[in-house]
Amino acid sequence: EIVLTQSPATLSLSPGERATLSCRASQSVGSYLAWYQQKPGQAPRLLIYDASNRVTGLPPRFSGSGSGTDFTLTISSLEPEDFAVYYCQQRFNWPPITFGGGTKVEIK
Amino acid sequence: EMQLAASGGAVVQPGGSLRLSCAASDFSFNDYSMHWVRQVPGKGLEWVSLISWDGYTTYYADSVKGRFTISRDISNNSLHLQMNRLRNEDTALYYCAKDRGRGHWNPHFDYWGQGTLVTVSS
Hints:
The structure holds two protein chains of two kinds. Chain A is globular and about 35 Å long. Chain A is 0% helix and 49% strand. Chain A has no helices and eleven strands. By secondary structure, chain B is mainly beta. Chain B is built from no helices and eleven strands. In chain B, a hairpin with a 6-residue loop joins strand 9 (92-102) and strand 10 (109-112). In chain B, 43% of the residues are buried. Classes of the chains: A mainly beta, B mainly beta. The interface between A and B is medium-sized, with 21 and 22 residues.
């Protein structure tokens, strides 16, 4: 089973600041990594698939990068609606399909 | 707009059974694999099961294998999860989710239902 480790667990930032979220895989997942955003009381929402592809309509301030075992989700300038929990997920080697433990981006 | 609506969650005793459903609308349901993903409130996401677009192939997490059965009904665009021999640790919000791949595997989840809560407690 591929284990995804996200860091930091919590990121305290102010609106307008840059957020850098990390996801590290226990073995290579190629580029088969996605990022999701989840707000309280809502289902997760796909943001990025296959490491760097933004879903249709996603603001360009969101970007994904990386390959192999190290991946990054960057939010270039935080908007108030971006404060949420973010999860990474791999589809390289499954079952099981696995998720990281999440990074909470909170308002400082 | 593409929609998934999960239902069937309830409070059930350990050892009991429950059947979850997910109604799909406004997309070609028969062309996509579907998944169940669960989340203990306040915790992370756990993939539970997958069924292929044609219904012939299924996969399960080890934690539910032999107890849960995923199925789909193409006549009414619905997905189901039969949950037997439920345990306290199955308590979670269960989401149905659509696979990105059309006619093939691509398990990133581009649409999610709102979730249905299963509570296993005596």
